[in-house]
Each structure stands twice: as C-alpha cells, then as structure tokens.
UniProtKB/TrEMBL annotation, chain A:
Keywords: Cell inner membrane, Cell membrane, Cytochrome c-type biogenesis, Membrane, Transmembrane, Transmembrane helix
Annotated localization: Cell inner membrane
Known role: Required for the biogenesis of c-type cytochromes. Possible subunit of a heme lyase.
Organism encoding this protein: Komagataeibacter oboediens
Protein name, as recorded: C-type cytochrome biogenesis protein CcmF
Gene Ontology cellular component annotations, sorted alphabetically: plasma membrane
Family the UniProt entry places it in: Belongs to the CcmF/CycK/Ccl1/NrfE/CcsA family.
TrEMBL record, chain B:
Entries under InterPro entries matching the protein: CcmE, CcmE-like_sf, NA-bd_OB-fold
Family to which this protein belongs: Belongs to the CcmE/CycJ family.
Molecular function GO terms recorded: heme binding; metal ion binding
Bias-annotated ranges (Basic and acidic residues): 138-150
Protein name: Cytochrome c-type biogenesis protein CcmE
Coiled-coil boundaries: none
Gene: ccmE
Taxonomic placement: Bacteria, Pseudomonadati, Pseudomonadota, Alphaproteobacteria, Acetobacterales
Location of this chain's protein in the cell: Cell membrane; Membrane
Binding residues annotated for heme, in chain numbering: H125, Y129
Pfam hit, one: CcmE
N-terminal signal peptide: 1-23
Membrane topology, as annotated: Single-pass type II membrane protein
Stretches for region Disordered: 138-176
Parts of the chain on the Extracellular side: 29-176
Taxonomic source organism: Komagataeibacter oboediens
Length: 659, 176
C-alpha cells in the first residue's frame, strides 16, 4: 500500500508543479492577484507531496519491502538501519527523487520566506522553479520510478556495495544535492528578471542570500566528498580530478563568481547582465553535472544504450532548460540597462577581476573534463587528462586570484588609490614574504611555494581587514569591542570565508609535500618514514557483523617516544565477494599519519605483509578550511540586513515589455 | 573614467584572463594528455620512454608474481588484449579488486626493455566491470563480441596470444 501512496504523491506533486509552472506566469502577466496567489500555495503543496513520497520510499526500505524493485536491488535484511535509510539515495531512482524533493523544498522556501518580494516577481520565480520540478518529476515517474514493483518479491535484497556503507558517504549526497539544487533559486530569479525585463539593486539583494546558501552547501558537499575519498579509498589522495568531482567543482567556481558579482549588482547596480548570465550558467552546470555525469555520458558515450529512454529524456530536458533560458537571455538581455561607472582600481574592478579569473579556471576545468569524451565521440581516440594537466592549468590562474583576493575587501567602491590600501596591508605582505622565504627552503617545486605564500597573504589580509575596521590597537580595546558589535556580520563572514580559502590552499600545498612508502615487512620489523619509525607489531583476524577482517597493529615512534598506534585492516565481505581496505589515520591537526594494510604474502608460518605508510602534512586543513568557508557564508546569511529590512525597489517607471 | 574606456579596460582584462587560460590549456594538452594503448599497439609502436600512457587489457591468468626491491614489493604481471602481451612492473599495493583474468588499466611509461613501469594500477570496484577502453579494444581485435555475452576468461586468451608464452610464476627466494 505504502509504495502506491508514495507513487501517487509523486504524481500529485508532478501535477501541482505543472500548475505551478503555468498559472502564476499567466497571473503575473495579467496582473491577476488571485492567480499569482496560487504560486506559494502550490509550491508548499508540492513540497508536502514530495516529502510524503520520499518518506514512503524510506518506509519501504526500513520495513524491508522487497516487492519494491528499488529496495530489492539496493537493500538487504542484514543491512544496518542507518544504511537502509541512507541507501535510499545511494542509487539512481532514489537520488532523482531526492533531487526533486530538495527542489520542491527550495520552492517552498521561496514561498514561505519570500513574502516580502513583489508578488509578480515571487509568482514568476516560483513558476520557473515549478517548471523545472515538473520536468524532473515527470522524468522520475516515467523512466526511473523508485516505486516500481517486482513480482514475485524476493526473500532478501541484493544488498549494497560495502564501499558505500560509510557514514561520510551517507550524508554526503543530500548536502551536495542541496548545493546543486539550491542554485535553482538564483536561476529562477534570473529568468523572472528576464521576463520582467528589469534587474536592479533590490533584485541583487534578494538573490544573494539564496546564492550564498546554495554555495555553503556545495562547499560542504565538495569538502565531504573529498574527505570520503581520502579516508575510504585508501590511496592517500584527496582529489582525483575525475569527471564526477569536476562536475561539482565547475558549478562551485561559477557559483563563487555569482556570489561576488551579485554584490556589485546590490551595491552599485553594475554587472547586471553578467550576473544574470552567471546565475543561468551555474544552474546549467549543476544540472548537467548531476545528470550527465551520473548517467555515465562523460565516462562512456554508450552508457545510454542500456536505457535509451532515460538518456533521451534527460538530454531533452537539459536542452529545454538550458537552451530555453539562454534563448530568453539572448532576447531580453539587451533591454537590461547597464549601471554605475567605476575605475579599474576599485572594489568593483577587483570583483570583475575575481569573476574573470574564476571563470577562466572554470573554462579550463570544463575543457579538461569535456575534451576526452569529445575526442572519443568525434575521432574515436581514447585519451585521458589527469592531475598533471589540471595542476599545470588551474594553479597558475589561482595564484593571481589569491593575490587580488587579499586586496579586495580593503579597496573602496567606485574609485580607489592603491597607496592607502598598501599601507594598511604592509604587515600582511611582510608575513607572506617571510612565508615565501621559509617555503622556498622547506618545500619542493615552485608551485607549492607560491601557493603557500599567497595563502598566508590571504589569511593575513583577512585579519588585517577586520583589525582595520575595528581600529584594533589604535583605540582602547573597549571601543574596538563596540565597533565589533556594530559591524555587520557579513563583514566577518566574508573575512572568514576568505581565510578559509587560504587554509584550504595551505592544506593542498602541505599535501603536495606528503611522503609515502610502500614496504613489505614481517611482524616485528620497523621502517622509517618522515623521521618516524613505524613498527608492525601484530596482525590478527577479527570478525565483524557481515565481514571478516584482518587487523594490523602499527606503532609509530618519534625518537623512541610512542606517537600513536594505528589499526588498519582489510575486510572481506563474503556475500558480495568484495574486499575493502580500512585506513587508519592519526591526526594532530598539523599532519596526518596514515597507514594502510595491503596483501599478505608467503607461508602462514612466517608471512610478510605489504604496508602503505603516508605522512601527510597539513592534510586536515583542507577540510577544516572548507568548513570555515561554509561557516563564513552561513555567518553572512545571519546578517541583520538579510533577516529584516525588506529592500524596496527604487521608484522607476515599471518596464513591462509586451511582445 | 568614461563608459568607453571602462569597456575597453573590461575587454582587455577578459582577453588577458581567457587568453592565459587558453595558453595554459594548450601548453598542458601538448605534454599531459594520456593516450590509451592496447598491448598489441604498444608492441607494434612503443611510445617514447618519457610519455605516460594508459595500458589496458586483461591480466593473464597465472602471470602474477612478486619481487622485493629494497624492502619495497614489486608486482609483475602480464596484460594482454588477445594478440600480444606486455609485462607490467608495479611498485605498490594492487587494488582490492585486482584479479587474474580480469580487466585492468595501468598508467605509466614503457621502458626501453619493453616492460611497462606502472605508477598506478586501476581495477574498478565492480567484478563485472570492464573498462570501456578495454572492451573496445577487445572488440576491435575480434576476440569478443558483446552480443554473445560476457568476455571470455583471460586464461583462454593467453593461449590465443601470438607472442611467446611468458615463463610461469617462479617462486622467489623469500618464499613467495
């Protein structure tokens, strides 16, 4: 019964989304208040229906309803409860439903929190969200229905890949998807503005919190994904530049550009057309990222051969959403008026530079990701592009970006002199210079050295920015404290996010100096790595709930003093005939000590074991920095300006373009 | 600053940004693109020693053997596409799903003596998975038609191999 209820709720949501896409648009065009008032109601209704539908799928998974094909294929009685729930979105059908549900929650949020928007704008925004939602709910219903039944129902399900049974991966997809889908709201605002033919400061102010919120989730999602691959895959790496990862990085880059260019729209009414294009681009990249990559088109052009209907539907939908919005942009963009003037050396000028550099990095990553599939499609050549390519292209572009990032928050709007800014930043520059000298002696290669110096520069200049605003050490502390309390939280948020970038880059630079060794030892033997002595003291078998394991004990000593004892293990899952490697990591926040147990060789009397030992300096900073960035974004969202004080539109003649 | 000069400045900044991006991309493409090659291609036309390639095929059953060089384990195995076999040397831990008789992709360089020095060995986390490049190459060499079901066991391919059969795994002094 329950799966049918879920299916019905999904169908109902699809119908409501279709209504939500059409009726408010008509209402907004005819200025019919009753039709426009339908928009929030339908959006909330659709959200409730989809949450119900998703709850039904979770219920089916928890109660082991193997008559539902999706549950039978991905779950099993023996699976722990947590993974029964999280397994719901660990497969194609479930993740499409999750995607649609998050989109409907975004629509509901615009309906509930967007009451201060002009009703026509709100109606149009919700209508655009409804249109996208209707398409994907239809996709879910027709080609990848998670509630499809199977008859006869099997006694037990096929279970889940043991590699995915991990708490890190369990919560990674919802957060990442919220990031992807969240950019649908700025997209909808952009489309609504194009339909209205009007973008102004108030629009910038409305759209920015949504973009920042989505950006926070995407940042968190990417950091979590990278952390997962670091501690689960056991290769000692954190980012492999594979298409799935790049698909999340590309919208992050354009989304970061969007978050910054929306500031210019809000404060100075400039860069309006560009911001609208960025909003459209970011969501388009999110969409194509999630669906093209997941359906395998990037890895293999033939992946759709298994289910042509699915591929054709998705390609059609993507073409409709992306092509339609770009067409609308092409028609309407010339009617948007361009705004305020500014000189190259000004806050606006630096934000433009930020956008150019971020988009250049994005273009490079996009080229590297798309070139191999195009080559194989057009010329039948199989090539691949890996880490060396991306390192050689992105880092040289990221370094100037970081240099300008240090200046950005200190430079005044409109027109600025470099000298006063430099005078306030001299100590940050000195610290960065010292870092450069120290790094030159301590690090291999030129790029990590440059990255370290610029990262220190960014962190110091963020501190300098806050210190300057508080007049720290130039006034009594009590007065600085008063200033701190009256300073908008967005300022702290921005400084924190910038410092977070610096910390991430320091982590990456540190990881480039990581040392590792692969050794084959008997029990009791020691090996040296990075000044520590690693001793394999014991290896013993252990039994888990649905696997049997081989657990090693490695003692790490520094100058004879015990630093830590690691317990890496190898698990063999009998039911899936699969082995997983459990990494042991010890961290002191300055470096990770990372041990992996490999194969056992030789006879049982005196076997040798292959060990992989890593010393990863500053590794935890990468994820810590990511969290700090997301926290900075959240802090600026909690700013008073966002919560209260609905912006009003400047009184201008309402431009309604009738075509 | 007039509107015209601002526009000029914007255009110049964009050109510099995208131009340097394009220059970096082209430069990196010329040296960092990794081509996929099947063992028969490697034998017919070995790439220069400094060129990184991806070698894909099936691991010949019974060909995996181990050596120990200065405390570091080295795995040695043969990769075949049914026409030729190339010996791969890999210093490191083979992935969990590495099996004899299954498909594998190795990233590395061909050394002058014809063996392949892998810096990375990839086996997908799925037993039934065959990398697309490998499947494509097998089909091209006429050893396997996907319409007639799963790929044959690599053990049988080994016998189809035209080149000399590799010497069987010999026990190494440390008791392997």
């Amino acid at each position: 019964m329950n799966p049918e209820l879920g299916n019905f709720a999904l169908a109902l949501a699809c119908c409501m989304a279709a209504g939500q896409a059409i009726l408010p648009l008509i209402g907004a065009n005819r200025r019919d208040a009753r039709l426009m008032a339908l928009a929030p109601a339908l959006a909330v209704g659709q959200m409730i229906a989809l949450i119900t539908s998703f709850a039904c799928l979770i219920h089916a998974a928890i109660t082991n309803d193997f008559s539902v094909q999706n549950v039978a294929a991905n779950s099993a009685v023996s699976k722990p409860l947590l993974y029964k729930i999280t397994g719901v979105w660990g497969n194609h059908e479930g993740s499409v439903l999750l995607w649609a549900m998050i989109l409907s929650i975004c629509g509901g949020a615009v309906a509930l929190f967007g009451r201060n928007l002009p009703s026509a704008l709100q109606a149009r925004v919700i209508a655009v969200l409804g249109g996208v939602a209707a398409g994907f709910e239809l996709f879910c219903l027709t080609t990848s229905n998670p509630f499809a039944r199977v008859w006869p129902a099997p006694l037990d399900g096929q279970g889940m890949n043991p590699l995915l049974q991990d708490p890190g991966l369990a919560f990674h997809p919802p957060i990442l998807y919220t990031g992807y889908v969240g950019f649908a709201v700025p997209f909808a605002f952009a489309i609504a503005a194009l339909i209205e033919g009007r973008v102004d400061a108030a629009w910038g102010r409305w759209v920015r919190p949504w973009a920042v919120a989505a950006w926070c989730f995407l940042t968190c999602g990417i950091a979590m994904g990278s952390w997962w691959s670091y501690y689960v895959l056991g290769w000692g790496g954190y980012w492999f530049w594979d298409p799935v990862e790049n698909a999340s990085l590309i919208p992050w880059l354009t989304g970061t550009a969007l978050v910054h260019s929306a500031i210019v729209v809000e404060k100075r009414e400039a860069l309006k057309i560009w911001t609208v294009l960025l909003a459209i681009g970011t969501f388009s990249f999110s969409l194509s990222g999630t669906f093209l990559v997941r359906s395998g088109i990037l890895n293999s052009v033939h992946a759709f051969a298994n289910d042509p209907a699915r591929g054709v539907f998705i390609l059609g939908l993507l073409a409709l959403v992306i092509g339609g919005s770009l067409l609308l942009f092409a028609i309407r963009a010339p009617q948007l008026t361009t705004g305020g003037l500014f000189s190259p050396v000004s806050r606006e000028g630096l934000l433009v530079l930020n956008n150019i550099l971020l988009c250049s990095i994005c273009a490079v990553v996009l080229t590297g990701t798309m070139y191999p599939p195009f080559m194989s499609l057009l010329f039948g050549k199989t090539i691949s592009v890996g880490k060396p390519f991306f390192d050689a292209t992105t880092i040289p572009l990221a370094i100037p970006l970081m240099v300008f990032m240090g200046f950005g928050p200190m430079v005044p709007w409109k027109r600025a002199q470099m000298w006063p800014v430099l005078r306030r930043l001299w100590w940050a520059a000195c610290v960065a210079l010292v870092a450069l000298v120290v790094a030159t002696f301590r690090m291999r290669d030129i790029l990590p050295v440059m990255a370290t110096a610029t990262a220190v520069w960014v962190i110091c200049s963020s501190i300098a920015d806050i210190a300057e605003r508080l007049r720290l050490f130039r006034q009594p502390l009590a007065q600085s404290w008063q200033r701190a309390r009256s300073l908008p939280r967005a300022v702290f948020g921005a400084a924190l996010a910038h410092a977070g970038v610096g910390i991430v880059v320091l982590g990456i630079a540190g990881m480039s100096q990581a040392a590792h060794r692969i050794v084959e030892v008997h029990v009791g033997e020691s090996e040296m790595l990075a000044g520590d002595s690693w001793t394999l003291t014991d290896v013993h078998p252990a039994e888990g709930p649905n696997y049997s394991a081989l657990v090693a004990t490695i003692e790490v000593r520094h100058n004879g003093r015990l630093v830590t004892t690691l317990h890496p293990s190898k698990r063999t899952f009998a039911s899936q005939h699969q082995t997983t490697t459990e990494v042991a990591i010890h961290t002191n926040l300055m470096a990770d000590i990372y041990g992996v147990l490999g194969d056992k060789h030789g006879d049982d009397a005196n076997p040798t074991y292959v060990l992989r030992l890593h010393y990863n300096p500053l590794a935890p900073w990468m994820w810590l920095g990511g969290l700090i960035m997301a926290f900075g974004g959240a802090l600026s969202l909690s700013d008073r300006r966002v919560r209260v004080g609905a912006p009003r539109r400047a009184k201008t003649v309402d431009v309604v373009v009738v075509q | 600053m007039t509107r015209k000069s601002r526009r000029l400045w914007l255009v110049v900044a964009c050109m510099i940004g995208l131009g340097s991006a394009a220059a970096l991309t082209l430069n990196a493409f010329s040296s960092n693109i990794v081509f996929f090659m099947a063992p028969s291609q490697v034998q017919a036309k070995p790439p220069p020693a400094d060129r990184t390639i991806r070698l894909g095929g099936m691991v010949v059953a019974g060909s995996v053997r181990r050596e120990k060089v200065k405390d570091s384990p080295v795995a040695i195995f043969d990769v075949t596409d049914g026409q030729a076999a190339v010996t791969v040397r890999y210093e490191g831990i083979l992935p969990d799903l590495f099996r004899e008789g299954q498909s594998v992709v190795a990233v590395g360089t061909v050394s002058p003596d014809g063996t392949f020095r892998a810096s990375e060995v990839l086996a997908k986390h799925d037993e039934t998975y065959m990398p697309k490049e490998v499947a494509e190459e097998l089909r091209r060499s006429g050893k396997w038609d996907p319409r007639f079901g799963k790929a044959p066991d690599a053990a049988s391919w080994n016998t189809m191999t035209a080149s000399d059969p590799k010497k069987p795994a010999t026990p190494t002094p440390d008791g392997n």
